[in-house]
Amino acid sequence: MNSAVTAKQYENICVLTVSNPPVNAVDAVIRAGLIAAVREAEADPATEAVVIMGAGRNFIAGADLAEFDGEIPAPAYAPTLGAIEGCGKPVICVIHGITLGAGVEIALAAHYRVAVEGAALGFPEITLGIVPGAGGTQRLPRVVGPEQALALLLGGAPVKPARALEIGLVDKVAAGDPLDAGLGYARELIAAGAGPLPTRDRSCTPGSLGDELVAAALKANARALRGRTAQFGMIEALRAGVDLPFDEGLAAEKGLSDTSLRSQESRALRHMFFAERNSAKVPGIDSSVQPLKVQKVAVVGAGTMGRGIAMAFGDAGCEVRLVDIDPAGLERGEAAIRANYEGSAARGRITHEQAAEAIGRITYALNLDGAADVDLVVEAVFEDMALKKDVLAWISRAVRPEAIIASNTSSLSVTELAAVTAHPDKVIGLHFFSPAHIMKLLEIVRGGATSQQTLLTGLEIARRIRKIPVVSGDGFGFIGNRMMLDGAFREGEQMMLEGAGVDQIDNALEAFGFAMGQSRVNDLAGVDIGALVRKQLALRESRPDPYCIVSDTLVPMGRIGQKAGKGFYNYTANPRSGELDGEVDAVIERLAAERGITRRVFTDAEIVERFVLQLINVGADILKEGIAYRAADIDVVWVHGFGFPRHLGGPMFHADTLGLAHVAERVTALYAQHGHYWKPSELLLELAKSGSSFAEYDRAAARGE
Ligand code: COA
Ligand code: NAD
């Protein structure tokens, strides 16, 4: 036994507690501890039953993902779970708090399972591109049947105790303390003379995982599984679980699980898991600095963004005052927020009471009178430097000196904006993405004067409103918009000029895995919105022509996107997906001719390559300039803000997959062909030359090198 698994005797019951803070992830120490502890309890004549539970808030949140990068250290999962399942005394597992993956697999190797109310249990492995490797695909169908097993494994979402009881995943649900639940159930079982009940001895009907069941489950999860492959290994392993004797099935699962762990898909998804958590860690912050508390919030500007931002804070339980100088705008904002919550209630996403509560948390005003006690003001007025300066100065006069003032600007210098306030150290950029109450990404922009405490408060705000924060320096377009405008979308438009079709580009990007192609994104978000941002950015730094010239020509023609019925596509006949429009082709052809660009046919592969290489090259510059702390942060921005396929791990991870030597060679070749916008990033060349990677760059930075 070891300190990760402790045993305590309660009369004739031995309780084993697994401890590996913060979430009791299973590693080799825990596996060794479990084997030793179970054997010891089995050998102890005073023990009649063994209870396994977790220390702290939950049982076990899964395997330690850090172990998956290399050979999993001994002891392996199979002998560990074999020791539990083979114990000659009844083993009862208490499922409490968040119990996932290997946690549920261990519970399935126990003989009896009791879930404590409030628990959530499931198999998130599919979201990490992994086939479970601790017998999950073998024991689960023996306990809940093939259909439910398939739903749990392919869906990946956890279930509550009541549902787990309904499908037979647990034997009992108890209220209250996990220890009491375990002891109570163990006493009940001892009194009933219940013996060990190994799951491996149960069987499924061979052939009962039919093709129809599989097809239905794949269809039900088609959206989440788009572009992924782990589900096929999962189905094969499950089939082995249903059709084969236990040991044979287990061996088949092991092979499939090992293959999945080595897959690029799983590496990418695991990279994203850690990237999303690391992005909230800011290097160099003094450990004595504490974030400020944020409860009362004012949002200035009740337009598209202001409404979403108000809802994001309201949803987190904050008191929100939404302010707009235009009474009609304020009214529209209020109506939109009300309609949003009422719509959610009508669709059954929230209850009517929850909708009423959420609506009640947001109040509306034409000014900031009485806002002296707010902790945070987020401004989301029109994107205009002079206006924003006026508004920030006004906010600064209205609030107390401690209050944080945030700008949702997409393009303006936070440093310059902060200078008009009384306390520039309290000013920060909080760059939300549209729709702000839904999109998970929050770029936190540190201005030149932003204090460590203000930055930490920004991160705390992100945690509070359940956003994934990425800290950005105060440069042109921050992280996301710079990569989009200087890099990918500009290049997309360049390819249009050179002859690639608007829809060909969109389709190629979507086939690569992007949630939506660039012209469809532009039409949905509003071509004019991007043009406005570029206009402001142009005041910051100029860019040589052609720079998003197609968009900038469409806007004055009224082709501003879906809201106008036309943009890159025409939406008259087909309001949702739109149709190609000869007028746009004519514009593109004219713009190309004016610039002496020869048009030609493109392959889809060429389109994707140029789009993605641009992201990587500009991303590398951003990293070199210190605008982003880590390559992984850039990946988070592109996966969560711009629909880059998660299973490819973000553009920088994808660059490592392609190999930086190859990337550098291609960028250099394209530079020779196209000049300016393809100037290879110094960092890219450096890393490629030394045989390094962006992942290695991040690791070196984390070591302080
Ligand atoms: N392996 C290794 N580390 C893990 C882990 C795992 N399975 N699960 C969580 N952690 C780490 C996180 O990286 C984080 O570390 P950090 O504090 O250094 O950033 C810490 O535990 C807390 O996790 P976090 O996600 O920030 O906490 P939370 O309370 O928001 O969420 C969980 C808790 C368990 C819901 C969430 O961490 C999770 O989904 N974990 C993965 C579960 C999983 O996929 N298991 C199956 C593995 S096959
Ligand atoms: P919007 O035009 O929809 O709304 C702006 C609102 O601000 C209007 O209701 C207007 O009445 C109000 N307003 C103007 N002057 C004001 C003042 N002095 N005091 C109070 N209210 C005032 O604009 P939007 O699209 O919501 O953009 C707002 C900000 O968010 C901009 O800085 C924009 O760059 C940024 N942003 C927009 C998006 C997007 O997709 N729309 C995404 C990220 C960031």
Helix % is 40-55%
Number of helices: 29
Output the structural class: alpha/beta
Distance between the termini: 39 Å
Bound molecules: coenzyme A, nicotinamide-adenine-dinucleotide
Please state the overall shape, judged from the principal axes of the Cα atoms: globular
**What profile does the largest beta sheet have?**
8 strands, mixed
Count of distinct strands: 16
Q: Order of strands across the widest beta sheet?
A: 11-10-9-12-13-14-15-16
Name the average pLDDT: 97
Percent of residues in beta strands: 5-15%
- Which regions are unreliable across 5 or more consecutive residues at pLDDT < 50? none
- CA radius of gyration is 28 Å
Description:
This protein has 705 residues and is an alpha/beta fold. It has 29 helices and 16 strands. It has an 8-stranded mixed sheet with strand order 11-10-9-12-13-14-15-16, with helices on both faces. It has a 6-stranded mixed sheet with strand order 1-2-3-4-6-8, sandwiched between helices. It starts with a strand and ends with a helix. Bound molecules: coenzyme A (COA) and nicotinamide-adenine-dinucleotide.
Secondary-structure map with pairings?
Elements: E1 5-10, E2 13-18, H1 28-43, E3 49-54, H2 77-85, E4 91-95, E5 98-100, H3 102-109, E6 112-116, E7 120-122, H4 136-144, H5 146-155, H6 161-166, E8 172-174, H7 178-191, H8 211-220, H9 230-243, H10 246-262, H11 264-278, E9 296-300, H12 304-315, E10 319-323, H13 327-346, H14 352-361, E11 362-365, E12 376-379, H15 385-398, E13 404-407, H16 414-418, E14 427-432, E15 441-446, H17 452-464, E16 468-473, H18 480-498, H19 502-512, H20 518-525, H21 527-540, H22 549-554, H23 582-594, H24 604-624, H25 631-642, H26 651-658, H27 660-674, H28 682-689, H29 694-702
Parallel strand pairs: 2-3, 3-4, 4-6, 5-7, 6-8, 9-10, 9-12, 10-11, 12-13, 13-14, 15-16
Antiparallel strand pairs: 1-2, 14-15
Helix pairs in contact: 1-2, 3-4, 4-5, 4-9, 5-8, 5-9, 9-10, 11-25, 12-13, 13-14, 18-24, 19-24, 26-27, 27-28
The protein binds coenzyme A (COA) and nicotinamide-adenine-dinucleotide.
Residues 22-23, 25, 61-66, 98, 100-102, 124-125, 128, 130, 277 line the site of coenzyme A.
